[in-house]
Amino acid sequence: MPALVLLGAQWGDEGKGKATDLLGGSVDYVVRYQGGNNAGHTVVVGDQKYALHLLPSGILSPSCTPVIGNGVVVDPSVLLSELSGLNERGVDTSKLLISGNAHIITPYHVSMDKVAERFLGKRKIGTTGRGIGPTYADKINRVGIRVQDLYDESILTQKVEAALDVKNQMLTKLYNRRAIAADQVVEELLGYAEQLKPYVADTVLVLNQALEDDKVVLFEGGQGTLLDIDHGTYPFVTSSNPTAGGACTGAGVGPTKISRVIGILKAYTTRVGAGPFPTELFDEDGEALRRIGGERGVTTGRDRRCGWFDAVIARYATRVNGLTDFFLTKLDVLTGWEQIPVCVAYEIDGKRVEELPYSQSDFHHAKPIYETLPGWSEDITKAKSFSDLPKNAQNYVKALEEMSGAPISAIGVGPGRDETIEINSFL
Ligand code: GDP
Ligand code: IMO
Ligand code: MG
Predict the structure, then answer these.
(1) Active site residue 47
(2) Are 57 and 17 in contact (CB under 8 A)?
(3) Which of 106, 241, 267, 311 has its Cα between 20 and 30 A from that of 163?
(4) pLDDT tens-digit map of 111-144
(5) Looking at ligand 2, which residue's alpha carbon is closest to its atom 11?
């Protein structure tokens, strides 16, 4: 059985955690392939709510092996506290595997993230402040620290000293902060080594052998397509590749193994942090989406910016990820609107533009062109099949599907595992 990728089709927070958890019971491995604890995936199981940041959402399914791939950046203190938090709630986390090649977020990466944002002032990205960008920068600069380095004290010391040589110059001379002592960082990191050891594995080998043995492997993206470092709204993006190709590099699995790429798509749009967002609403509709949808960040507690559905973005996500399916989430949140506007194209400098402009300057002043679809007022949270939905809700879904370029194979009508309408099976 081949591999599936599940990723965000917008700016993150589309409901990836819920979708992954839903499939978790039927797959053998769930793999995070990029990002770190900037992610916040909420999973609701019965009356229990879990907020996962670094751990794959498959950790809640006992039959499934959760994997943190080489493309992820790992903050060991966050990882250990997330694990102990789950253990206290009775979740068995012993099957977790962590790639020895994953890079480590150290305290100096977190400091650099925060001071860099402060230094940018009005031009800030609005990062989560978790050290993500600086850790990936060090990885690319070849001065990063990897999980495997925790098991060689001499190498670890050399690497931390080398990294801090330059960073301390920046911290003290440019950012006017105190220098960070290398020996303290080394001591802290070594303190995590033994606790992490049972989980560290050659995850590339494990996953490829699993695929050869016909096991089902699900790759769970963090963030979303428009936050991708290459394909997103740069520079207002995260520092990794949440798009489908990231699953190959971030887990060491070839593209020929991937047979399905599922885009998680919210029935409207949200964004956290700075950057362009053509359909953003500043009126009572935006406020209502935020309130009804509970649109507040799981990681930083920031209110999410809210707006109508944007089909230009959905088409773009289909293209850059090669999406085979969509999982449309939060349709229930739209219940009660008489009319629902959907952005079908942009107006840029007086011209109608059907596809996402490659120029950021154009995207920054793109104005949405809306088509208005009739809404519905019936409660849809108990709907179990497509035909249970009111006609107007069915038509809304069909219209989105037509505009977005891939079949909508599942619909979320509530946060719970079973509040889902399955149209085409994913497995
Ligand atoms: P992720 O980062 O993509 O995993 O998404 P988040 O967990 O950050 O945000 C999605 C939020 O919507 C969470 O609070 C979910 O519990 C919730 N959610 C997911 N699917 C649905 C749905 O179909 N309906 C409703 N009402 N809530 C949903
Ligand atoms: P999930 O997995 C929404 C945003 C931040 C900021 C930008 C860069 O829950 O969908 P970073 O700390 O990554 O350098 O911040 O990316 N961002 C997210 N927005 N959901 C997320 O994750 C995000 N992870 C990062 O708000 O704008
Ligand atoms: Mg989230």
Answers:
(1) no
(2) yes
(3) 241
(4) 999 999 999 999 999 999 999 999 999 999 999 9
(5) 127
